[in-house]
Amino acid sequence: MDATADELAGVVDLFGGLTREELERALAEAAYRADGQAVDDGALEAAIDEALESFALVRYDPGSQGETSTTSDGEALLVPGPTAFPAVPEPAEDLPHILDVERRRPDREPLGEAARERFVAAADEAVADDDAARLRTLVDVSYDIEAWAPVDLADERTRLEDAREE
After folding, report:
1. Are the CB atoms for 106 and 63 separated by under 8 Å?
2. pLDDT bucket at 73, cuts 50 / 70 / 90
3. What is the pTM of this model?
4. What pLDDT score does 89 carry?
5. Residues 23-46, mean pLDDT to the nearest whole number
6. Is 73 left (phi over 0), alpha (psi -120 to 50) or beta?
7. Which InterPro entries match (predicted)?
8. Residue ending a domain, choose from 50, 80, 98
9. What pLDDT is attached to residue 72?
10. Inter-residue contact 5 to 41 (CB < 8 Å)
11. Is a pLDDT exceeding 70 seen at residue 105?
12. Is the pLDDT of residue 63 over 70?
C-alpha cells in the first residue's frame, strides 16, 4: 500500500492523532487487509516525512505544549495538518475497530503553535537556501495554517515575500 499524504492524514484523522509507531501499525494492518502484502518500511518513512514537510501532517508533542499528554508514554502525535485533504483508503475504514487506540482530541492552540514553529523552521531553511519555489509554497501554506489554527504568520509571510523579491 503506497499511501499519499492525504491518505496518511485520513488514517490519522480516524483517531484524531496517532504516534508514528501507531500510524505505521495502522498502515501495515490496512495493507494486509487490502492485498495481504507487507508495507515497505522505507517507502512508508519517506511518505510520512514528505507529509510532514508539506504540512499534510503536523508533529505535535502534547507534553511540550503544557497540555496533558494524550498518549500513554507522552510520545508525540501526528495530526492531520493544514494542507491535508484527509482521505481514508478503503482498507483502512475499519481500523478504529481493529486497533486498540482511543480517539484523541488535541487542543487547537498548541497544535497551531507546533505548526507555527515548524513553519518558521521551514521558512528559515527556504530563505537560507534561496529556494524560490519553496518560498512561494510556504507563502501559500502560511494562509492554510492561519485558517487551520489560531496563529498569525503575517510577519513570516512578509519575510518570505521579501526574500522572493531579492
Report:
1. no
2. low
3. 0.88
4. 86
5. 85
6. alpha
7. DUF7109 (IPR055533)
8. 98
9. 53
10. no
11. yes
12. no
Residue 103 lies in a domain: no
Q: Report the alpha-carbon distance of residue 44 to residue 46 in Å, rounded.
A: 5
Taking the C-alpha atoms of residue 100 and residue 91, their distance in angstroms, rounded to an integer, is 17
Under 8 Å between Cβ of 102 and 17? no
The domain tally of the chain equals: 2
DSSP labels, 123-134: HHHHHHHT-HHH
Start-to-end CA distance of the chain, whole Å, equals: 43
Q: Is residue 84 part of a domain?
A: yes
> pLDDT tens digits for 131-162?
999 999 999 999 999 999 999 999 999 999 99
Q: Is 19 within 8 Å of 99 (Cβ atoms)?
A: no
**Do you know the residue count of the chain?**
166
Which value, in Å, is the radius of gyration of the alpha carbons in the chain?
17
| Cell numbers that stand for 7 in this block | 491518505
DSSP H helices, 16-153, are 20-35, 41-53, 95-98, 108-129, 132-148
- For position 38, what pLDDT does the model report? 73
Same domain as 93, residue 154: no
User: 16: phi > 0 → left, psi -120 to 50 → alpha, else beta; which?
Assistant: left
